[in-house]
Amino acid sequence: MELQQMRYVVAVAETSNFTRAAEQCLVVQSALSHQIARLERELGAKLFERTSRRVRLTPAGAAFLPAARQALDAAERARAEVAAAAGEIRGRLAIGAIPTVAAVDLPAALKEFHLRHRQVRISLRSGASEDLIEGVRQGTLDVAFLGLPLGARPKGVRGRELARGDLVALVAPDHPLAEEQHVDLHQLSDEPFVDFPLGTAARAQSDEAFAAAGVRREVAFEVTTVDFIARLVRQGLGIGMLPAAFVAELPDLPILRLRDAPARMEHLIWSRFQPSPVAAAFLSALGISAAESASSPDS
User: Fold this and answer.
1) H-assigned helices in 44-190
2) Which of 8, 1, 49 is nearest to 26 (CA)?
3) CB neighbours of 18 closer than 8 A, spacing ≥ 6?
């Protein structure tokens, strides 16, 4: 069983298409198909179901895929460790981030890291905090930037609190409260809201504050992106709740400071295991030493 064969299997699984997988792997489709067929003969099981319209994993393929990914990750890490021993940082850096990260200027940090380490392939995935935590646990992400309610601690990873701050309310420019400097949650209780989906950490920050104030609210619009929240707020369809440190990104929307504001913490997390040389270098660029990253796990 060869690493190249595993790479082909992963590519087909991710693209659900042999042609796109071959393009991604920079190989002709016939060669890719031949190697996968050879692997299937070696394993004694079909990995993919092929029809004229789609390609999908068989149960055997679904069982094989995680092991293939682990083997590829292990091989890449081994190459990175050898390069690091020779004083070179290279390999893959997979980062996750909530859309409203504000404690770090992430684009600037990524640019600086890229300029220092040209041999590192950087990828960035935006998502909800709970999904990013799972990505770090599973090893598909090296580090992730989260936003959590006060007191919440991500489990099964290591991490550091980066910052904490309040949420503010955003309203349409013609909203009756647009000229107010400060309001409280009771004043907003009759308003419809635009917020993140129920069950996400981003939503919990607001829900917990309203519950603590004894205020019921209606979340009429549940969306997954900050841009969509802003678009709905601009149309006067509801009030949005976003971190105060982030709202400078939306200068056209009036900001209402809240006397009983919801609060949140931003965290940086990484694997509870020894970080790869690339991940350790990125942590170091953010002021976290490799020695520190090997201690104080969050349980």
Assistant:
1) 59-85, 106-116, 129-138
2) 8
3) 12, 29, 32, 33, 50, 55
Q: How many residues does the chain have?
A: 299
User: What is the bridge-based pairing of β-strands 255-258 and 158-170?
Assistant: antiparallel
- Structure-token pair, residue 196: 């993140």
Question: What's the token pair of residue 28?
Answer: 């002709």
C-beta atoms surrounding 9 within 10 Å: 25
Find out whether 184 and 262 touch, Cβ atoms under 8 Å.
no
User: What global pTM score does this model have?
Assistant: 0.71
Euclidean distance between CA atoms 118 and 261, whole angstroms: 43
Q: How far apart are the first and last CA of the chain?
A: 37
Per residue in 223-281, pLDDT (tens digit) is 999 999 999 999 999 999 999 999 888 999 999 999 888 888 999 999 888 788 888 88
Parallel, antiparallel or unpaired: strands 143-149 and 263-270: antiparallel
CA angle at residue 270 from 15 to 197, to 5 degrees? 65
